[in-house]
Every structure is written in structure tokens, then in C-alpha cells.
Amino acid sequence: EPVPKAWAAGAPSTGKPAVTPDSVINLDHGDPTMFEEFWRGTGDAAEIVIPGWQTMSYFSDVGNVCWFMEPGFNHEVRRLHRLVGNAAVDGYHVLVGTGSTQLFMAALYALSPPADTNGGAPMSVVSTAPYYSSYPAVTDFLQSGLFRWAGDANSFKGDTYIELVCSPNNPDGTIREAVLSSDSGIAVHDLAYYWPQYTPITKRADHDIMLFTVSKSTGHAGTRIGWALVKDRDVAKKMTKFIELNTIGVSKDSQLRAAKVLKAVSDAYEMPEGKEEQHRLFDYGRRKMVERWSMLREAAATSGIFSLPEETSAYCNFANETASTNPAFAWLRCDREDVEDCASFLRGHKILTRSGSQFGADPRYVRVSMLDRDDAYDIFVKRLSSLK
Ligand code: PMP
Questions:
Q1: Is 239 in the pocket of ligand 1 (CB under 6 A)?
Q2: CATH code at 5-42+279-386
Q3: Is 112 a pocket residue for ligand 1 (Cβ < 6 Å)?
Q4: What is the ipTM of this complex?
Q5: d(CA 266, CA 263)
Q6: Keyword annotations for this protein (predicted)?
Q7: Ligand 1 geometric centre to CA of 221 (Å)
Q8: Would you say the C-alpha torsion 74, 80, 83, 84 has a positive or negative sign?
Q9: Pocket of ligand 1 contains residue 190 by CB under 6 Å
Q10: Could you give the C-alpha distances from 26 to 231, 243, 328, in angstroms and in order?
Q11: Annotated domain spans of the chain
């Protein structure tokens, strides 16, 4: 049987198809393909080769709470946080997951009381609206007896809960803190976007449970690697148990690749000034995001029917200068009186976005990904500016 050519060459898929000026532009998902351009330029710094006999065992680091985590990955995670200064790592357990999505589920499992306690009532899971649309979906899809989605944290009554705090927030980019406080409530901090390309690094976060992912830090969403920083050993053990029961472990091949990618990021900042400068991910990312946000604001002003969150800025301890916030998503509002559903209005103009209603918010808002490739982004802003 003939083998398809791409297969025979071992060529990987490229993800979303290429676009032309009249294509449908899909900015619904936060697919971080913007970063491909950067990683095309880093040569072998972020490359790995895995011989056929390697990464075959289930086990990686049997002495660690997270026994399936590659020591090299653990090392590079800690090194990068020390470099960026966005999160404390000393005194924390690092756990690896298949994306931070798996670690989010692991946290729900670890933090909910067993089904035969708590009067049999499932743990309430809440987050301030507008909240990341996956939180309710992932919490409820298996209809667990351990936990259930309980909506907007601001209207929650009770003192036993898991509060998801996403900062900077998906979808609207705001900097957030927990809104609830109680001795029997627990916060999980989703810091997927707490990186210098998106927001000034103003403090070293030191919450009990913090989630991160290469999907947003380096753009390697397809590698499916996330990590959690967890203070409490028992919580870390229970989260590890979840992953053990769910997928036995996490792809070592992916961990090795993620470790190499994180190493390339740190190395570029620790090399002497000069030839490594163009290989500095956060400088590249920030420049790119600043440019895109300015294009978007200009397009919204030209059109006249859209509004965007106001730009804010603060001193960034990593960049050592004042920096603006450049969220990975635009929380766009259509101000036209006759448009009640902004997502369907934009769909009519071949721009796919996610409706505010999916984030527990007004459908006059949509969330637009800011991380697509240049060609799609350019067509998007051009199209948006022409809408009246
Ligand atoms: N948290 C937030 C806030 C996100 O936006 C995303 C990705 N859209 C995730 C978690 C999940 O990331 P991962 O690809 O690591 O599962």
C-alpha cells in the first residue's frame, strides 16, 4: 500500500490551514501559533532527538512525590521561575501534567472531600465572571459526585468551596485576586498568562496551588505539558494520584521536549549580551503583543462600533521598566444598539470568536485570540476596521 508522502517524510501536521484574504478567520481558540516564527529562528537550541530505546519505562524519578516527572523538566521549571521572578519555587512541589487542564482536574480531585463525608454534598467550584469557559465544562463533564460547578464566585453563598482565580484573567485580561475567604474554602491560582509578554511581573506569586503551562508561556500547546507548584505535600500526593489513575503518568517524550524548550528560554537570558538577543522569547513576545494591541485599538477606533478594555501599565520587575498589559485575548464589546449577539454578528463577517455568554457574561462581548499567526491576525484587524 502506498504511504502518503507527508507520512513517509515524517512531516508533522501544521495545525490550522493557511488563510487567504477572504477566508473565514478562526480566533475562537487560543491557539498560540504566533510563537512559531520565534521558534523557527532558534535553530537546534530547542531541538531534541530521542533514540528508539529511550523513554520506555513508566518511571522517571521514583524518589519524588511526582514519580513520573523527568528530573530535567523539574529543574528547568524551577530555573525559569527564578529567572522571571513570577512565582516562588522554594518549598514547593513541582508536578507535571498533560497540559495544565489535567492538573486543574487533579486539583479538583485532591481538594474535594471524599464522597462519604461532607454530608455527601459535592464540593462547590466557583470563579468570578467572566471566567474561563473550560472551568464549568471540565468541572461537570463527568458529573462527579465529588465536586460540581457553582457559578460566579461573587454570588456564591457558603464557606466550603474551591475558587478558581485566573490572573491575568482569560477572557478579559484583568489582574485578579480571590474574592472569597473562609477557613474551609481553597483557592487554585491559574497563572497560565502570568508571563512578561502578557503582563508586567509585579510580584513573586506564592499561593498554595499555582498552575502554569507551556501552551501560553512558550506557545507549545501541542506538546501538552503543564505544571503545578504545590505547597502542601498531601495535596501534591493526591494530585499525583489523580494523574496516576487518569493516565498513569505524563508523556516523557513531551516532558523532555518541554524541558529543552524551557532551557532554551532561560539560556538566551543567561548568555552574555549579543548574539542571543534575538532569541529572547519574552522580549520577542512583548514586542509582538504591543504591536498587535496597537493595531487592534486602531482598528476598533477606525470602525467606531467596538470597545476594548482600557490599557493599563505597571513596573515590571523582570523587564526593569514600566510595561503595559497585553492580554492574550481581546475582550471585545460591540456597541451597536441593534447587535445583541456580537459573536454571530462577527461570524456574519467570517470572523469566529467565542461569545461572552460562554464565560458567564453578556453576549455583546466576545473573546478574540491575539495569538494566531501574522497572516490571520492581519486579515482580522483589517476586516474589523471596515465594520460599521
Ligand atoms: N488555563 C487557562 C486560563 C487557559 O487559557 C488555558 C488554555 N486555553 C489553560 C488553562 C489550559 O492549558 P493547557 O493547554 O496547558 O491544558
A1: no
A2: 3.90.1150.10
A3: no
A4: 0.99
A5: 5
A6: Aminotransferase, Pyridoxal phosphate, Transferase
A7: 9
A8: negative
A9: yes
A10: 39, 32, 15
A11: 5-42+279-386, 71-268
Q: Is 221's C-beta closer than 6 angstroms to any atom of ligand 1?
A: yes
* Residue 107 Cβ contacting ligand 1 at under 6 Å: no
Pull the grid cell for residue 72: 530535567
The owner of cell 478567520 is 25
**pLDDT tens column, 283-340:** 999 999 999 999 999 999 999 999 999 999 999 999 999 999 999 999 999 999 999 9
Report the nearest atom of ligand 1 relative to the CA of 102: 16
Q: How many CA atoms lie within 13 A of 295 on its CB side?
A: 16
pLDDT at 283: 97
| Contact predicate 64/95, CB 8 Å | no
pTM recorded for the entire structure? 0.96
Cell match 509582538: residue? 288
| Angle value at C-alpha 251, between 141 and 242, nearest 5 degrees | 45
Residue 116 has pLDDT above 80, yes or no: no
- C-beta of 217 in contact with ligand 1 (< 6 A): no
Q: Which residues have CB under 8 Å from 383's CB, separation 6+? A: 25, 349, 350, 351
| CA–CA dist 315, 269 (Å, integer) | 19
